[in-house]
Every structure is written in structure tokens, then in C-alpha cells.
Write a structure and sequence with these properties.
Elements: H1 7-12, E1 22-25, E2 30-34, E3 46-50, E4 55-58, H2 64-77, E5 82-86, H3 92-95, H4 97-104, E6 109-113, H5 114-118, H6 121-145, H7 150-170, E7 180-182, E8 186-189, E9 194-200, E10 207-212, E11 217-221, H8 235-246, E12 252-255, H9 267-282, H10 288-294, H11 305-325
Parallel strand pairs: 4-5, 5-6, 6-7, 11-12
Antiparallel strand pairs: 1-2, 2-3, 3-4, 8-9, 9-10, 10-11
Helix pairs in contact: 2-4, 6-7, 8-9, 9-11, 10-11
Bound molecules: zinc ion (ZN).
């Protein structure tokens, strides 16, 4: 059997078929960039909001090859300067690529939730871990290459060399310190367009949703995903947030993963999160494995294998979290 080199180096070398991001213009001011279906659970969507003077970008792809392709397109799509970049929350698939965006747009101010602002060393640590991962991956690929027959080594030497060139550009990436830390609902003027930044502690300790009232549009990120990752959930606050968001005067809701949603889709994460809480509360003495096995099957994705695997992981994480944080009635 053929030896496998690191998948990471493959992507670093950008020789793997690059998955296409889908840019969609949703309204006068808003473009939505949806990650390809196969990356749905692993990389994030972005939103670009442009007023008459300034643009605001919400999130960046977390996978750096994707981020580079994204930045290339972003430069073409900008009609005004990129004044602000905002992290919807601190998960690496939304946050890390912003370091690369900051490198290309050094004047853009970084906006984060208070909880991330107060713990910004964690963002630096995440980024350093990612960069260390590249170094290890390249070293591992070199080791594996040496065990291949000579003709095959030739191809890999070339791919690894390209990965090294790419890595060199990323090696020195650093986040700049956040410029704006959001502690309460805040308006941001983009030039004849005001957007509202709404902080929550729901999907994580620090989420920001962005309301573009003029376009009846809400950027909800992972908080509004139809099957969100609940491993760090504040269940009660999250359910409350979904209730609050469903009252907003919007017609389009943009999730962190997957396609554009309608306001009525906000019931999907709500129903799923409630089901987890209810299941855990109803079986206070059951262990996580049993709770996963006995969880109602109706939420499980039907056909896609990737989706099923992600779902199983999300459910287990959500049940664990609920067992730790939700009070059970005896
Ligand atoms: Zn997330």
C-alpha cells in the first residue's frame, strides 16, 4: 500500500484541489461567503458588510490555504476600505485566519467580545499551536518521503518544497491587540449604514451577532447553525438568545456553517439544544455513552457520512457539557 504523506502538507502545497468558496451577494450591503459543503463542519462562513465609507468583515476561514484564496477575492470585492474585522467567537475555524487578514489589511481594527479581549493570550496560543503544527507536519512528511522509492520521492520533494515556501510566509504571523472590545450592544457606523453588534454568552463564553437592520439581515454565526457544536454551550443563555434573535425584524439569517437561513430556521438549533437538555435531565444517572445511544434519532443526518461523523462528535460533546452544567431534577 502507498505510504501517505501528511494531508496538511498536501494542502500547504496547494496541490490538492482547492475547495471553492461561494461568494453570494445577499443585499445592497452584504456578501456572504459560504464554505464548500465538504468543509461545512470544519471551516467557517464569512460575511462582508459594506457601507459608504467602511467595510466590516465577520470571521475568516480557519484553514490558511482557504484564507489566502479568500483574501484574494476579498481584495476584488471591497468597494471601500476594510476598517473592521470581527471575530464572532474564539473558535479557531473563525478566528485564526484573521491573523492572515490582519497581515494584508494592517489598518483594519480588530473587534472581539469582552471574554476574548480579556483572554487574548489564548488567541496567540491557538495561533502558535497552528504554526507549530505546520513545522511538525513538514518534518513528518520529509521523514516519510525518505522511505518512498526514488521516483516517488521526486514528486514529494517538490510538493514539500512548495509547502515550505508557503509556511515561510505564515511563520511570522501574529495577531495585533484587539482595538474594540464589545461588552454591550454597540452600534458601528460604516458610512450611511449602521450595524449593531450584539454580545452573548451562548455557543461560547463570548459570541457576537451582527444585525444589519437596513437589509433585514442577521449574522448569527455558530449560535444559529442548524446543528451547532454545543461542547461549550451555556444552554440556558443560548436558548434565550435564540428566542431574542427570532424576534428581530430580519428575513435572512447567516450561520457560521452551512447555507443562508430564514428566521424560522432558528427553531432548529433551539429544538436540538432543548432535546439535549431534556434528555440529560430525564436520565440523571445515565452515563454519556448511554445518553448518546438513547438520544432520539430524529436529529441524526441521513445520508452524508461526513455529516454523520460530525454529528456524533457534536452530540457527545453536547451531552457531556449538559451533564456538567445543567441541573438535573431528582
Ligand atoms: Zn464555533
Amino acid at each position: 500500500m502507498r505510504q501517505c504523506l501528511s494531508a496538511l502538507v498536501l494542502c500547504l502545497a496547494a496541490t490538492c484541489a482547492q475547495a471553492r468558496q461561494n461568494w453570494q451577494t445577499l443585499s445592497e450591503h452584504v456578501d456572504f461567503i459560504e464554505q464548500p459543503a465538504k468543509l461545512r463542519f470544519y471551516d467557517s462562513n464569512q460575511t462582508l458588510i459594506q457601507g459608504e465609507q467602511c467595510a466590516l468583515l465577520v470571521d475568516a476561514p480557519g484553514e490558511f490555504t482557504q484564507t489566502e484564496a479568500f483574501i484574494g477575492e476579498l481584495k476584488k470585492q471591497l468597494r471601500v476600505p476594510l476598517c473592521y474585522v470581527l471575530a464572532s467567537h474564539a473558535h479557531d475555524d473563525h478566528l485564526l485566519g484573521l491573523a492572515l487578514v490582519q497581515k494584508h489589511f494592517p489598518d483594519a481594527q480588530l473587534i472581539v467580545h469582552q471574554s476574548l479581549g480579556e483572554n487574548f493570550h489564548l488567541a496567540h496560543e491557538q495561533l502558535n499551536e497552528r504554526l507549530d503544527g505546520f513545522v511538525k507536519s513538514i518534518a513528518l512528511s520529509l521523514q516519510r518521503m525518505e522511505k518512498l522509492p526514488d521516483q516517488e520521492q521526486e514528486i514529494w520533494r517538490d510538493k514539500i518544497a512548495r509547502a515550505q515556501v508557503r509556511f515561510k510566509q505564515w511563520q511570522s504571523l501574529r495577531f495585533s491587540t484587539p482595538d474594540k472590545v464589545i461588552t454591550q450592544a454597540t452600534e458601528l457606523d460604516l458610512g450611511k449604514l449602521n450595524v449593531e453588534l450584539m454580545p452573548f454568552a451562548a455557543h461560547t463564553q463570548g459570541d457576537i451577532a451582527v444585525l444589519v437592520r437596513a437589509d433585514k439581515l442577521l449574522v448569527g454565526a455558530d449560535m444559529v447553525d442548524t446543528l451547532p457544536y454545543p461542547g461549550e454551550a451555556n444552554y440556558q443563555a443560548w436558548l434565550q438568545a435564540l428566542e431574542e434573535l427570532s424576534q428581530l425584524p430580519v428575513t435572512q439569517v447567516l450561520p457560521g456553517h452551512g447555507g443562508v437561513l430564514a428566521t424560522s430556521d432558528l427553531t432548529k438549533p433551539k429544538v436540538w439544544l432543548e432535546a439535549i437538555v431534556k434528555h440529560v435531565q430525564a436520565n440523571p444517572s445515565a452515563d454519556v455513552v448511554t445518553l448518546v445511544e438513547t438520544f432520539p434519532k430524529q436529529y441524526q443526518p441521513q445520508d452524508d457520512e461526513l455529516e454523520q461523523r460530525a454529528y456524533a462528535m457534536f452530540l457527545e460533546a453536547g451531552i457531556k457539557r449538559a451533564k456538567q452544567t445543567v441541573t438535573t431534577k431528582d
